[in-house]
Amino acid sequence: MIYGIGTDICDVRRIQASLNRHGERFAKKVLSEGEFATWQMRSQRWPERGVRYLATRFSAKEAFSKAIGLGMTLPMTWRSCEIGKLPSGKPVVLLQGALKDWFDSRHLSAHITVTDETDYAASFCVVEVTV
């Protein structure tokens, strides 16, 4: 049974403007430790790719927060939700701390997809009850 659906589109130029204003501090606010390491690696090799990576993670977390119906209110936080990927490349939602406890107690599972083009990143999330 579907618990919630969320979608988000993010202007990559807006993410770039936030990075210009706040530097790494902005990325550290949005990304988990693992995501931050990936962002740094991608940014060093190809800065534009790093910005798009950050935009897709921002968008995916927004879509997920909408699908669970919390928005960005506790226990949902930027850093407690990580967008990882399986060896196949399929994106997955990985949760930590109080958000993981909240999510698991409701017997939920999440499906997420992310995409980006030059100026936009978009995500779609479906959360379902697994019981």
At CATH level 2, the architecture is Alpha-Beta Complex
Number of strands: 5
Number of domains: 1
Q: Say which CATH homologous superfamily is assigned.
A: 4'-phosphopantetheinyl transferase domain
- In angstroms, what separates the terminal alpha carbons? 9 Å
CATH topology: Ribosomal Protein L22, Chain A
Shape: globular
Please state the average pLDDT score.
96
Report the uncertain regions: none
**Strand order of the main beta sheet, please?**
1-5-4
At the first level of CATH, the class is Alpha Beta
Helix content bin: 40-55%
Cofactor: Mg(2+)
Domain 4'-phosphopantetheinyl transferase: 4-125
Main location: cytoplasm
GO molecular function, one term: holo-[acyl-carrier-protein] synthase activity
What's the SSE blueprint?
Blueprint: E1 2-11, H1 12-22, H2 24-30, H3 33-45, H4 47-67, E2 81-85, E3 91-95, H5 97-105, E4 108-116, E5 120-129
Antiparallel strand pairs: 1-5, 2-3, 4-5
Helix pairs in contact: 1-4, 3-4
Description:
Its cofactor is Mg(2+). Its main location: cytoplasm. Its EC number is 2.7.8.7. The chain is an alpha+beta fold. The protein has one domain: 4'-phosphopantetheinyl transferase domain (Ribosomal Protein L22, Chain A, Alpha-Beta Complex). It contains 5 helices and 5 strands, in the order E-H-H-H-H-E-E-H-E-E. The protein has helices spanning 12-22, 24-30, 33-45, 47-67, 97-105; strands spanning 2-11, 81-85, 91-95, 108-116, 120-129. The chain is globular. The mean pLDDT is 96.
